[in-house]
Amino acid sequence: MELVKTGLENIIVTQEYAARGWAAYPLAPGSKNPLKGSHGFHDATTDTSALIDAFTDPPDPNIGIRAGEPSGIVVIDVDAHEGAANGYESMRTLASLGFRFPTGDRRKGHAIAKTPSDRLHLYYAAPLEARIKSTSGVLAPGLDTRGEGGYIVAPPSATEKGAYKWKQYPDTLLELPVWVIERVKVTPAPERRVTEPTETIPPTVVQMLKDRLDRIAKASSGQRNATLNREAVYLAQYVGKCFDEIPLTD
Length: 250
Known about the structure:
- The chain is α+β, with helices and mostly antiparallel strands and about 250 residues long.
- Helix content is about 25%, strand content about 20%.
- The protein is built from 6 helices and 13 strands.
- The longest helix has 16 residues, at about 225-240.
- The protein is elongated, with a radius of gyration of 29 Å.
- Mean pLDDT is about 85; it is low at about 1-5 and about 245-250.
């Protein structure tokens, strides 16, 4: 899929991306940044008519693809800047330990895009059973993930350094490797404790309530409000604990 970058070509390409379920949106011409005044990747869509409008004005914008659940993809960003972490070396080290990034082929594999700065973007199908975070260096130095809350600049976008180009563009994407999923999946929030209602009140709870109400009733004039507030605070501590931990004295 080698295309000369023109406004018309970008419209054609975004239609292809939409057919794959990849939500696209325009970036500033020659830039990796969203259009000024836009909503960034929140504008990403697979609606073909909306994409035609979005990529007609301004002319010749770059293409952003929203990663994560909206597009069903996760992208591994392999970085290698001079004097910085080298993602290629990290990949070799991981492979020696049995942690590989399967490539597949043109029929079923990962999509590989080369950036103008000789980085690689490895596109995988997002797993159905987990949401994947966008991370930086969590997998290994120089290896970032673009998942929920992230986006990627897609071919045939171009900057002053050159164009983004596909090296492999398979018909079907391989799913993200399991070992990657385990490292960067979104951890679900712990379930809230739910206590089933009951008509049976433990004797200790009944006695405690009687004692507290008795203290309020016997409070002397001028001390009733203070006593009421104190006992209410005391009871509130144990309502949230479903009266599992009730001291007999205070």
